[in-house]
Amino acid sequence: MSAPTSPTTHEGEQSAEHPSGTSTTSTVAASAPGAATAVVPTAASTAGRTATAPTHRSGRWIDHWDPEDPTFWRDGGRKVATRNLWISVFAEFLGFAVWALWSIVVPQLPAAGFTFTVDQQFWLIAVPSLVGATLRIPYTFAVPLFGGRNWTVVSALLLLLPTAALAVAVQDPGTPFGVMLAVAALAGFGGGNFASSMANISFFYPEREKGKALGLNAAGGNLGTAVVQLAVPLVIVAGAGVALERAGLMMIPFILLAAFLAWRFMDNLSTAKADPKSFAAATRNKHTWIISFLYIGTFGSFIGYAGAFPMLLKGQFPEVTLSIAFLGALVGSVTRPLGGVIADRVGGTRVTIASYGVMALGAFGAIQALQSHSFGLFFASFLVLFVATGIGNGSTYRMIPAVFQASAVPGGALDGPTAVDAAALDEARARARKAAAGCIGIAGAIGAFGGFLIPRGFAASTSLAGSLVPALWTFIGMYAVMAVVAWAVYLRKGSALASAGI
């Protein structure tokens, strides 16, 4: 291997690493579960090129990055990627924790002297998801614009706003609801972090290892919800009284640590380029909107139930300690990878439809528990719901690359009877990969709106009927509709993609 060359390659320039006659293209990984988008520089050809280890210039920028080259990956690429991954996991973990803070703080507000109505409390739980979902797409494009390391530092420091504001606002029971709602909205910054974190890590890994890396990144982030719901009830009651401000203050040292680690040890990749065309292609494809609709039922249900569960426990079973609410988010997080594994074996559509059926059973069990006031049945039913949402998350994302690849050629199946020119097929598959990447970003954002819709559904049900039961019946109906849509489009005999086995 030759000695590392000076990293001077920039867009529009030639170098020893990219001589005339070779090209480097950006492709987008559509196979990684949970990725908001994944725009990845890969070598279109490595012929005539000498692999070099990654080297830095000022600002921790790396100009030559080629993880698809085995020599480059072995001689330093893997080490750099792994270092960036683990810091990203920590930063994203904190993002999810901040995003979920209000889900566990709101049930404690009455004990601290606040007199908000039930509807207002559900607004405080729902609005962080509304803001976080809206931020996901712009956060995705922030990484190519500013650099992954730079944006991780900025996005981590932005988490100081919602945590510090919460610590101040909850100390005065006279704080107006409008002010509290604005403070809760700031927690949406944590929801946006997921998209930029996933996009950034996708740049570092080769296609053959991307799924595992992004799966670890997503799982680490999702666990933030469970951990904050476990820790906050314990921290705020340590000592005398209820000190809600500790919920925000306890996060600040960790946020500062994440920002420091990102600044000191993470890297920017100058080869990372955004691909707005993938989003444009996705918006023109009907499957983007079908998948997004289905994802509201899986990921949206996870975020929505995780946010509302502590409030539901407090309202329906006030004698139960809130510290057990974290178990719902925990099982939903750890079962997500299982959904992808099962989907690989039997097909993502079948697993997704089955998850809707199990979610409907869980919601029905919760209805029976409310009518009999059985805490055991209520808690068990929600754990079933969370397991199903986790499995559905993994299976729905596994569907995306399969759907777009299968729809790229005549007949739906990749190896179907229709004769297709090899060059045309390669071009169609390349377009499908780009559209699938755009779908991942769009579906991730739209699915997150479920975190707003479910708490607001419980609020409307409580206000209009004095019970959670109508909301649960509505959710059951939606799961039935989503299951029928998935079957009709991807499994029904005679449908365009039935033969693809999606």
UniProtKB/TrEMBL annotation:
Low complexity bias locations: 19-55
GO MF annotations, alphabetized: nitrate transmembrane transporter activity
Membrane topology: Multi-pass membrane protein
Region (Disordered): 1-62
Major place of residence: membrane
Pfam families: MFS_1
Keyword Transmembrane assigned: yes
Cellular compartment(s): Membrane
Family matches, as InterPro entries: MFS (IPR011701), MFS_trans_sf (IPR036259), NO3_transporter (IPR044772)
Parts of the chain that traverse the membrane: 84-102, 122-139, 151-170, 176-195, 216-241, 247-266, 287-308, 320-339, 351-369, 375-392, 435-459, 471-491
Keywords on record: Membrane, Transmembrane, Transmembrane helix
GO cellular-component term (any): membrane
Family, similarity comment: Belongs to the major facilitator superfamily. Nitrate/nitrite porter (TC 2.A.1.8) family.
The protein's name in its UniProt record: MFS transporter
Naturally occurring in which organism (per UniProt): Cellulosimicrobium cellulans
